[in-house]
């Protein structure tokens, strides 16, 4: 019996695993070592329909649910979390357009994802990370156009992106815009903070906007409601980020198990020491729990059910489990775990970076706590009567 239980149909997973083995796995170490965007892998996955899994068929997608999407992120990231995060920035742009954009923009852009459109999701600025309620990037209305000026920082996939979703401040609050690479006034720069130690899918560039003129329908959703729209979109991508962490955790676990089963010390296999077995027992229980929570959060996305809570819980738990698993995998493998030739360093760096990117663990706990406060304020409907 397989160690990892399939949480969607095997008929979906088998071709997915073949595609990952062919297009992702052979490049995984080089993507991380050279810090390059995996263009060929992403375009190949798009040709197989994986970049537009949850879009309806009339928008060039496969019309599947978010559990299948989670399986894509988990399997791709088992080989390469850099490919996983490349797919995340595509999903983010796709989701915010699908949920909030004008019909004309949806009709123009959504079918392009099936053809491999690479996008970035640009919220952060040098002075605004977790707190995006006010921004230095500004957009003003000029007749029937919007004019954008500013600079976004830490932009994942920005070195290869063909289009960006951007948060900018307008006179009535923060708003969201769609911008294509190649428009006049759009450029990218590798600032001093472009190279990360984890989730390395090419430099995390600064995106420079110098009086970029946009058609009116490139405003996504409602002017001034950008933070709400961006955070709703993050509820989707946080669940998929959790699936990326699961892929990292499983890869680290499997690597360490294979090592422990083969390596001997004191006339025994490492795996026969009870102290080592207990590491594995803890890790397996934690990964299994994080998988169940993440796939439940993915199904909640299909049902639009409390997605902020479940997405936050899933990412909070799975990212922590991935970091802990990767660190214990290094410990189990001793000096071999520390070698650059082993993959455990990559797993550890990727796992740790995902405790920050896409919503830090502290911000996720705030989201969960806010939900608890709402529950308490509503008289704790459905709870047993509180007793002192
Ligand atoms: C690998 C990577 C990829 C990234 N990709 C992108 C991208 O594609 N697009 C994009 O827009 N951004 C991206 N970012 C930026 C990322 O979203 C921010 O780093 C993140 O939101 C945190 O912001 P910050 O780094 O400015 O930290 P800060 O907001 O300055 O926070 C610093 C510390 O304080 C904590 N903190 C902040 N506020 C609170 C609070 N209210 N309560 C408790 N603790 C708090 C944080 O959790 C953190 O530990 C990326 C970052 C990384 C590391």
From TrEMBL:
Its cofactor is FAD. GO terms for molecular function: acyl-CoA dehydrogenase activity; flavin adenine dinucleotide binding. Pfam families: Acyl-CoA_dh_1 (PF00441), Acyl-CoA_dh_M (PF02770), Acyl-CoA_dh_N (PF02771). Keywords: FAD, Flavoprotein, Oxidoreductase. Residues 224-372 form the Acyl-CoA dehydrogenase/oxidase C-terminal domain. This is Acyl-CoA dehydrogenase. It comes from Azospirillum doebereinerae. The lineage of its organism: Bacteria, Pseudomonadati, Pseudomonadota, Alphaproteobacteria, Rhodospirillales. InterPro entries: Acyl-CoA_Oxase/DH_mid-dom, Acyl-CoA_Oxase/DH_mid-dom_sf, AcylCo_DH-like_C, AcylCo_DH/oxidase_C, AcylCoA_DH/ox_N, AcylCoA_DH/ox_N_sf, AcylCoA_DH/oxidase_NM_dom_sf. It comes from the Bacteria. Residues 10-114 form the Acyl-CoA dehydrogenase/oxidase N-terminal domain. The keyword rRNA-binding does not apply.
């Amino acid at each position: 019996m397989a160690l990892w239980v399939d949480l969607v149909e095997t008929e979906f997973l088998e071709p997915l695993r073949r595609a990952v083995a062919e297009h992702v796995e052979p490049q995984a170490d080089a993507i991380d070592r050279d810090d390059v965007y995996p263009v060929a892998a992403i375009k190949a996955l798009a040709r197989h329909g994986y970049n537009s899994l949850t879009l309806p068929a009339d928008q060039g997608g496969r019309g599947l649910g978010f559990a299948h999407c989670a399986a894509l992120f988990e399997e791709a990231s088992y080989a390469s979390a850099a490919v996983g995060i490349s797919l995340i920035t595509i999903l983010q742009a796709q989701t915010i357009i699908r949920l909030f954009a004008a019909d004309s923009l949806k009709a123009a852009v959504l079918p392009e994802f099936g053809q491999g459109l690479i996008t970035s999701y640009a919220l952060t600025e040098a002075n605004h990370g977790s707190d995006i309620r006010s921004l230095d990037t500004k957009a003003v209305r000029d007749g029937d156009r919007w004019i954008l000026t500013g600079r976004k920082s830490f932009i994942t996939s920005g070195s290869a992106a063909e289009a960006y979703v951007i948060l900018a401040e307008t006179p009535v609050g923060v708003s969201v815009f769609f911008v294509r690479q190649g428009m006049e006034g759009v450029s990218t720069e590798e600032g001093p903070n472009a190279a990360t130690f984890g989730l390395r899918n090419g430099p995390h560039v600064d995106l420079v906007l110098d009086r970029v003129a946009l058609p009116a329908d490139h405003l996504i959703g409602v002017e001034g409601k950008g933070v709400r729209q961006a955070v709703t979109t993050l509820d989707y991508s946080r669940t998929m980020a959790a699936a990326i962490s699961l892929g990292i955790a499983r890869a680290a676990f499997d690597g360490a198990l294979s090592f422990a089963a083969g390596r001997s010390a004191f006339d025994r296999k490492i795996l026969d020491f009870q102290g080592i077995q207990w590491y594995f027992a803890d890790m397996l229980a934690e990964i299994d729990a994080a998988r169940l929570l993440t796939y439940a959060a993915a199904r909640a996305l299909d049902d639009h059910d409390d997605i902020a809570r479940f997405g936050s819980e899933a990412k909070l738990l799975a990212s922590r489990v991935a970091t802990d698993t990767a660190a214990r995998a290094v410990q189990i493998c001793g000096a071999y775990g520390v070698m650059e030739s082993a993959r455990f360093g990559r797993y550890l760096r990727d796992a740790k970076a995902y405790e920050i990117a896409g919503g830090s663990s502290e911000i996720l706990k705030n989201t969960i706590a806010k939900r608890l406060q709402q529950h308490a304020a509503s008289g704790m409907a459905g709870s047993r009567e509180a007793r002192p």
